[in-house]
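Hey,

The postdoc asked me to send both predictions to you directly instead of through the lab channel. I've kept everything plain text so nothing gets mangled by the mail client. Protein one:
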Amino acid sequence: MKFSLGNIGWSMAGALLCVGLPLLTVSHAEEVALNPISIVHVDVTKGDDATGNGKQEKPYKTITRAIEVASVDSTIQVAPGTYSQQSGERFPLTLYYLKLVGDPSNRGKEIKIVGGGKYLSASFANQDITVFAGKESTVRGVTITNPNNRGYGIWVEDTSPTIERNSLANSLHDGLFITGDSQAKVIDNYFFKNISDGMTVADIAQPMVKNNIFENTGFGIDITGKSEPKMIGNIFRNNLDGLIIEGKSKVVFRNNTIEKNQRSGINVMGEAIADIGTEIDAGGNHFSNNGRMDVNNVTRPKVEIQAFGNKWNNPVLSGSVLAELPVMVDAAKNARASYQVYVVGKEAYKINGLKKSLGISPVSRPFQGKPAILVGTYPRDKAATFVSQLTEKGFTAVFIAVPSSSQKTAKK
């Protein structure tokens, strides 16, 4: 049996020293064995904060209580259910040296954390957040929603947590906000219907953002400040805009899919630098069916964007964007093309009541073999704007390119 100062007391230790005997200490390996990383169980249905002890057979009811009692490097294992203020949670939930884990296999579909509380940010003053991911923390396999006004799901500031296989959905501002000096890992999450942005990267943060899905939100990602994220293998679809890259940020963009965003796939503004692929390091991104344009460069002063080695479905580029010559030629043609705007669906006929206010002359004309209303023919940018306006009014609107005369002849 081995002894240490802690278990033999100072008097015996002194005696050993006096007789010249060596002191025996517990090795690091034995310390780990004696103090294994603990798992604290939480179950909103079966748990009890007063009588529970965190073991699987006697879980706590709230994540709040588990955080209070958990030791460093513990895993807080959360069972299915909804964890909210009504169930006893106190927000924000603050994680330091802890892992918050639900069910990564389905991105926490059945484990919902709903709520928010006041957080004082060093850079952004008072905020309302659900979870603060602190130093050496992990959030994995849960669904997080902040339903409060301007609410954020997860907030990361000057720390580098791992945010992996979660669903960050329906927050009234952002699903995730990363700021300060952070090198967070954001991997394989689902960002859905967050009102402002799926995610914001600000200040000097340098996160790795990999294999996530951003859809049905305002901006998929807003990248600002002097941040330098790496974006690899993500999907941006059906957002207002796929990405906004602004400030003095620098972004490396590889193997992403940017499709069906209402306005633009990527907007680059301010003095930002976007590396979408170079002649020696192909981008590998796929652009398809974005509304006004795929890449929109409005930097001031003008910063050239390289976008080599990507896949394009009818590319539309704006501003100083360099790509292979065939891509540039196609983009120029597409920008000059005319587009027809249609309203489809059972409510399409109601567009006739807006003729005067919209200044249009709609006519009945089939779309893909089904009854529809042709609103008009416009340049691509105006057509996309019209579709946005009609969508906001509750119509289902689409626009398609008008075949060129050569195409019509070929079809005949």
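Protein two:
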Amino acid sequence: MKSYLFSPITLGGLTLNNRIIVAPMCQYSANDGLATDWHLMHLGQYAVSGPGLIITEAVGVEMKGRISPGCLSLCSDAQEDSLKRVVNFCNQFGNARMGIQLAHAGRKGSTDLPWLGGKPIPASDTRSWETEAPSALPYAANGWHTPKALDKLGMARIKKAFADAAIRADRIGFDLVELHAAHGYLLHQFLSPLSNQRTDEYGGSLENRMRFPLEVFDAVKAVWPKTKALGVRISATDWVASSSWDITEATTFTAALTALGCDFIDVSSAGNAAEQEIKVGPGYQTGFAAEIRTKTGIATMAVGQITDPLQAETILATGQADMIAIARAMLNNPRWVWHAAEALNQEAAYAPQYMRSHKSLRGLPVPGNPPVAGQK
């Protein structure tokens, strides 16, 4: 029978073999913005395990756009080379298409590694840097940096950094770019009135708050090949009662992106305010993806506590989303795609070195290495 999860989908000029996406997962394991062997292992294990697309963790378009000192960046030749090594490995041995998430942390940058507490790094620490945001408002109390409010020159610098990083991403060989406008990072900070209290043409009304993120999208689209795919990750709501950034405004923003030629929307939520109150549960964000998909017609990725293949298949079969992005379930089980294929009676791509684990070959002798009588 037909499976929605294992059917192909075309985004812009890019076709994916199936609709299972390895979602961006920060690893905090870079060295001065450079990809390391950890990234080779982390992304490489998924490349040989059958998903349609893998998207890297958030990659800062400039060094001060990183979340932490352990985050990736893409603003130097050395950083470009380090990521190219990873992508080359994935393309040589894997079957998945490769995407990169380009980001700027804004006021949520200059924080420590999660296993070291994840708190803002004191200004006295040499690893710290000055953060920037739409307005000089800290993310929260308790030691969070008060960011510098961006002026027009700073905004122009960041916009160019996004475009320059996209050019590097194309040279590296990435098939898709996802701009990070979710989880309280810089582009989301411009969208939400909780973090954007500017009085110029970039603040106030929804039209003004959308202006800079749309300009960044346009700048990237101008340099990104039409034969590839370009999309945006958004938070559909701040989950704060006092904020107007909700599914209604997120849908308006998505419609504006669609008019500019956006190929897909990755629908998440929250991350921009310490006072958020999130109603969490299995598939708790799929309703947002469904509403945006219905009202704008754009292809959507659903993400958030989607762990079971039948759950994922149902989301697609009922028209709630077009793709399923999976993170923690992939961390727990890097072979999630293979197990989903078995559960849905479908086929997934296997690396030939691992083909003997396919259900059709289990229990059979290894070719070229038959068992010897009397030996186990």
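Summary for protein two, as requested: The chain is about 30% helix and 15% strand.

Thanks,
C.
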